[in-house]
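Bug #2210: token dump truncated for DNA repair protein RAD51 homolog 2?
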Amino acid sequence: MASKKLRRAGLAQELCERLSRHQINTCHDFLCVSFLELMNVTGQSYQNVQKLLCKVSRACAPKMQTAYDLKMKRAVNPFSAFLSTTLDSLDKALHGGVACGSLTEVTGPPGCGKTQFCIMMSVLATLPTSLGGLDGAVIYIDTESAFSAERLVQIAEHRLPNYFVTEEKLVSMTRSIHLYRELTCESVLKRIESLEEEIISKKVKLVIIDSVASVVRKEFDTKLQGNLTERSNFLAREASLLKYLAEEFSIPVILTNQITTRLSNGLAIQADLVSPADDLSLSEVSGAPGSRKMESGCMIAALGNTWSHSVNTRLILQYHDLQTRQILVAKSPVAPFSAFLYTIEKSGLVLQGWKWLKWVSRSSAAEALNLQQG
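Reproduced locally. Full output below:
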């Protein structure tokens, strides 16, 4: 909440502009400045600065809600709590789809459909609420130059042929998706810091970053002394801002992540690097014809355990065999561990069936899971 812009804290426009000239733009910036410095910058008296501090503090303080309030809010407008993926079994497992007000991470190896999923969700977010959408705009931050406008239109035309029947509707949908290509950690963070006013002015209902890991892994070599701490601080700041935006505006935030190799030679593994929800080998199906074999426990989601705790929901996309792939619900506050087979078609991701996960063993680094045919 401290990331809230001062303009939204009820301060006068002239005062906000004066503070901005001193790089004081958010409630956090304001509250971190000394009392004497605030008097000098604002030109206000001791008593007036006290009033300003109280006003800003109240504006950024989290509002208390009871469980009953939350329940009734969702009961009045249940469609505002989730963005449907239109993948029926996955939506059912997630109690409605991608949750609003939280961070959903999609991770997996290259070519499994992470970007396809993001593009598909971009289309769905622009739909009217009567069709399961959020009737709003989308901010799409592309750090890998993987976004395709042609693919966006193709998914829209084939997934919802009865809705996108005219050129006008397709044009309206494409104009609602605002694409930013940010190729450095600094530019990504600056873009996120500027999103608050953009979300309001453009009526944004979905934020996507594809991918978080791309720029971070290029700029931070964790083998160098101090880089792991700097990377963790950067990711913590990024996650904090995104959580604020998701909660403040009750919108879903979808992030994609990459995979990395976990040590499997018996050496000690840093606690920050492994989490039970990270282990991608959990989804390997023993003996499946044509499956891509991986050494047990060697592939994990990138960015470490600290980042893993920052996301509310983690979906893992991976190969099942030569034709099909799997979506795994690896972490969720509402859904059990579950897996769904899918293929990538002209209409985006299409479910083919689904399986349940069963616990089979425990290790000190991660929980090993094995899929049983459902």
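Output looks complete on our side. DSSP finds 14 helices and 14 strands in the chain. Marking as cannot-reproduce; reopen if the truncation happens again.
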